[in-house]
Amino acid sequence: MERMDFRSLRRLRLDWVLYALLLPTLVYFVIFRVIPIWNMRLAFYNFSGRSAWTWAGLKYFEMMFGSPLMKDILLNTLIISLMKYVLLFPFFPLFAILLSEMRLGRLRKFTQVVSYLPHFLSWVVIAGIWISFLAKTGAVNQIRGLFALAPIDYMTDKGSIRWVLFFSEGWRSLGWDSIIYFTTILGISPSLYEAADIDGATRFQMVRYIVLPALVTPMVLNTSLQGSTPPAFIFSHISSTPALTRCSTLPMRRSTAPSKFWIPTSTASASVRGSTRWPRRWDWSRACSA
């Protein structure tokens, strides 16, 4: 035990620079994330800025759940959360895939900068932009006026406000939240693309069989950290197509391939005939275990 403690102290002394760099982050999270948890007890107390807090019990919970507006508040919260974490979620990896498929480097960098900028704007500025854009005298209603349509106050319209929140959140987060997926795509081994190209795969098939399986892990991790349930298509994709990171290369189909490459049984006859068509579904488990 003493020997293990000595090793730990020695490692701490050797890597003190790394721990010193980590210290400000730890202090930040303790002050702004851990200590405020203690003030969550305010839900059970009567707040007073001059005297001690007095016990209130379930007073505020009864007030909240007894309100006639509670049903609408809860319903709007669930609907907006569902729109944000289910409908908006697929656009982040899709945008990252579109960025990776751009061949013009300058256009891709310009698109990245433009999509990242809204993230650095405060919600006050974003609200001002959207209020001006969607007001009765805003750009949207001016376009509607060209077609002789009546103006709509989108910020107070019951049928539009949820979509206003949806698109404003997407406009602000699309570029920034796609960074983790874009870096994952950049980290995919080029040998996978080369093997797929030799095998006659199209760009769409490369995205389907190489890029999407690599994005499964960050997609599940991202949705888990946000506290939402990953969409059903993630689980179906995981169950049908295991990640390609366990494979050294894509399975070869040609009859002249060395014996170390596995030839799928469902396409063996097509390989002998020299067909360049990819199968609709690969048995990746066998390919990875070979």
The total count of helices amounts to 15
Main sheet overview = 2 strands, antiparallel
**Which structural class is indicated by helix and strand composition?**
mainly alpha
Query: Beta-strand level of the residues, as a percent range?
Result: under 5%
User: What is the 3D form?
Assistant: flat
Distance between the termini: 44 Å
Strand order of the largest sheet: 1-2
Quaternary class: single chain
Backbone CA Rg: 27 Å
Helical content class: 55-70%
Q: Which stretches of 5+ consecutive residues score pLDDT under 50?
A: 228-290
Counting DSSP E segments of at least 2 residues, the number of strands comes to 2
Give the mean pLDDT.
77
- Give the SSE order as H and E letters: HHEEHHHHHHHHHHHHH
Short key terms for the protein model shown above:
single chain, 290 residues, mainly alpha, 2 strands, disordered C terminus
How would you describe the overall organization of this protein?
By secondary structure, the chain is mainly alpha-helical. It has 15 helices and 2 strands. Strands 1-2 form a two-stranded antiparallel ribbon. A hairpin with a 7-residue loop joins strand 1 and strand 2. It starts with a helix and ends with a helix. The C terminus is likely disordered.
List strands and helices in order, with pairings.
Blueprint: H1 2-14, H2 16-34, E1 45-46, E2 54-55, H3 59-65, H4 70-87, H5 91-100, H6 105-116, H7 123-134, H8 139-146, H9 161-177, H10 179-186, H11 190-198, H12 203-225, H13 232-240, H14 268-272, H15 284-289
